[in-house]
Write a structure and sequence with these properties.
The protein has 646 residues and is an alpha/beta fold. 61% of the residues lie in helices and 14% in strands. The structure holds ligand C2E and magnesium ion (2 copies). One magnesium ion binds next to strand 13.
Length: 646
């Protein structure tokens, strides 16, 4: 019984010895007990058939013997038979879905008492025949009936092993007593045979019971997995779709909310999946807690939840959604770590936004997409214009495919300046998409889409090749930095091959190539990333850590890999003149980088005051509009030539 879900049960159950609870089949969960007890009520036909045959045989022996004792037995048998059928019909009339353990046990005991009473009547009838009848036919009939009945109990009531034992004993123990009293030759052996028969039946019943428990549990699990999410215990997509369809059937207005945790991926990646799971479980519990009685919540996978707000108009939908947002943005205490997060929500309303479950979900998802784009921790109602945005996105995807095929991208180069000498030390290649209808699209406006669709691999490879070919043609031996996307590292072999190919085709000295990665990459699949970075370094390229200080930054990243450069994000530059904390961070990173023999570039220098403050903090290199905007290759070459001339 190791696989049974042990349940503590009620106090009186606790007082039973463990072996008895186990043998009686009570050491199982409430749900499983409900299934097991339900199975003995499952077949009305077998009870009606068994009781009818049993009563008919007892009546037959009365007819053969004619004694009034047999008449009493026959009528008692009939009464118990009728009682059992009534109980069975009563059980089947009501749904037992929500029965608690108490109710289940009450039904179990009722069945138990009536079944044992019926079997005992059959058994006593056998005993009476053995003691009083001279008719060999009656004796064989009675004994055969008792044995036959006993065998059928094992098969029929396998879900209740104690019931089987008691029924078998009630039906044939009286026969054993009869044989002993009768004291004919071999009676003792027959009585012994009967005792052995009972033991074997009890053993078979126990085995059948174990087997049934496992089968029931497995089928419950399959049923559960088909409709529920095993991690949070919430309903899944299938069940939610059915619920929405049912709500549509009821006809009243309602809302469907798509909920997404904003920075879940970062939590999962930094703190591990186990803690990520904890956050999801907490979020699920908070959602459940914030909902009203008719509302329903499901998890659609990852950090996406869907809530059905029943009987709800736009005003209530907004109020409840804000409540949900608030509940999900409370701090999460996970394994001693206090984590802040927020959630975004997209809402669609029935009937105005759609009249089908699929479209309501699709519209809520679209609204969520907009909520995310508008910033985190916010909610959006679905509007028809969102469809336009979706078709825009699809159009952009199509255009991007065409741009990849036709290599319709361009690189601009932004100088990286030695702050002490003012010379352009190297440059960073930044991609642009000159779109025939939309004008030049900056990377921030198309790289996220390229990453979502996987097209960033082709685009990134093009940028690598172009930057290497360009740099190889420059007279100056300046380094060129190329940005790599996290998505490119999901196929490290392809990335390394692309870098190799670009170096090979351009004949660029690998030491002149810098590959910029961001911290978010180090959060993803640490070991594999480190391996890929080591391969890239083995090709001779330098690796820089870009945008340092944003996201889940950790100084430990600096020691994880021998980066050549650390680029401090422009958020610190913006406040360097006004905020002491920013100055401390820049100065600390400069110090650590110096100790680890890494160069430091401070990004986003826009004013002389910022430049002076940054120089004072010990940074050697800077990048920013003050020092030079991203520019065409011809212009950056002039800067390098000026350096050569000097
Ligand atoms: P990044 O690698 O951090 O590049 C620096 C970004 O900051 C550039 O934006 C640059 O124009 C901008 N910038 C430089 N100085 C200043 C300043 O003083 N003030 C302000 N406000 N901004 C400044 P850009 O070119 O729009 O690129 C944005 C991001 O797109 C890049 O950030 C990089 O992460 C990504 N990116 C650019 N090119 C590529 C590429 O070829 N592949 C990949 N995967 N990503 C790229
Ligand atoms: Mg960069
Ligand atoms: Mg940067």
């Amino acid at each position: 019984m190791a696989s049974h879900e042990i349940n503590s049960g009620a106090a009186w159950e606790q007082r039973l010895p463990a072996w008895l609870r186990r043998f009686a089949g009570y050491d199982v969960s409430d749900d499983l007990l409900r299934d097991l007890v339900g199975s003995i009520f499952a077949s009305a036909r077998t009870i009606i058939l068994g009781n009818t045959i049993g009563a008919a045989i007892v009546f037959a022996t009365w007819a053969i013997e004619g004694d009034r004792f047999f008449g009493v037995c026959a009528f008692t048998c009939l009464c118990f038979g009728v009682l059992r059928i009534r109980t069975l019909l009563a059980y089947r009339k009501i749904s037992h879905l929500n029965d608690g353990r108490r109710e289940t046990i009450a039904w179990d005991l009722r069945f138990f008492m009536e079944a044992c009473a019926f079997s005992a009547t059959v058994g006593i009838n056998t005993l009476l025949i053995m003691l009083t009848s001279d008719s060999e036919t009656a004796r064989i009939l009675a004994f055969g009936t008792a044995i036959g009945f006993a065998s059928s109990f094992v098969a029929r009531n396998a879900a209740r092993p104690l019931l089987v034992l008691c029924q078998v004993s009630c039906a044939i123990l009286p026969a054993a007593v009869g044989f002993l009293i009768d004291n004919r030759a071999d009676s003792g052996w027959i009585a012994l045979f009967i005792a052995g028969y009972i033991c074997i039946n009890a053993f078979i019943a126990g085995n059948q019971f174990r087997h049934l428990c496992n089968t029931f549990q497995a089928s419950r699990r399959i049923e559960f997995l088909a409709h529920y999410d095993p991690l949070t215990g919430l309903a899944n997509r299938l069940t939610m779709t059915q619920e929405i369809a049912a709500a549509i059937g009821r006809g009243a207005e309602f809302a469907v909310c798509y909920v997404d945790l904003d920075r879940f991926k970062e939590v999962n990646d930094t703190l591990g999946h186990a803690r990520g799971d904890e956050m999801l479980k907490t979020a699920a519990a908070r959602l459940k807690g914030a909902l009203g009685p008719g509302d329903f919540v499901a998890r659609f996978g990852g950090d996406e939840f869907v809530v059905l707000l029943d009987n709800c108009n736009a005003v209530r939908a907004e109020a409840t959604s804000l409540k949900l947002c608030l509940a999900l943005s409370q701090a999460y205490l996970i394994d001693g770590n206090k984590l802040e997060n927020s959630a975004s929500l997209g809402i669609s309303l029935y009937p105005q936004d759609s009249r089908t479950a699929d479209n309501l979900l699709k519209n809520a998802d679209l609204a969520l997409y907009k909520a995310k784009a508008a910033g985190r921790g916010t909610l959006r109602f679905y509007t028809r214009e969102m469809e336009t945005a979706l078709s825009d996105r699809l159009e952009m995807e199509r255009d991007m495919r065409a741009a990849i095929a036709g290599e319709h991208f361009a690189l601009v180069y932004q100088p990286i300046v030695d702050l002490r000498t003012g010379e352009t030390a190297s440059c960073e290649a930044l991609i642009r998409w000159p779109h025939p209808a939309r004008g030049t699209i900056p990377p921030g406006a198309f790289i996220p889409l390229a990453e979502q669709t996987g097209m960033i691999c082709e685009i990134g490879e093009w940028a690598l090749m172009r930057a290497c070919l360009d740099a190889a043609s420059w007279k100056s031996q300046a380094k060129v930095a190329v940005n790599l996307s996290v998505v490119q590292f999901r196929d490290p072999e392809r990335l390394v091959a692309a870098v190799d190919r670009a170096l090979e085709a351009s004949k660029l000295d690998p030491a002149r190539l810098e590959l910029e990665i961001t911290e978010s990459l180090l959060l993803e699949n640490g070991e594999r990333t480190m391996e890929a970075l080591a391969w890239l370094k083995a090709l001779g390229a330098h690796i820089s850590l870009d945008d340092f200080g944003v996201g889940y930054s950790s100084l430990s990243y600096l020691s994880q890999f021998p980066f050549s450069k650390v680029k401090i994000d422009m958020v610190f530059t913006r406040s360097v003149t006004s905020d002491k904390a920013s100055r401390s961070i820049i100065s600390a990173v400069c110090g650590i980088a110096r100790d680890l023999s890494m160069k430091v570039v401070v990004e986003g220098i826009e004013t002389p005051a910022q430049q002076n403050a940054i120089i004072a903090l010990g940074a050697q290199y800077g990048q920013g509009f003050l020092l030079g905007r991203p520019q065409m290759q011809a212009d950056i070459l002039k800067l390098f030539e000026a350096r050569l001339a000097a």
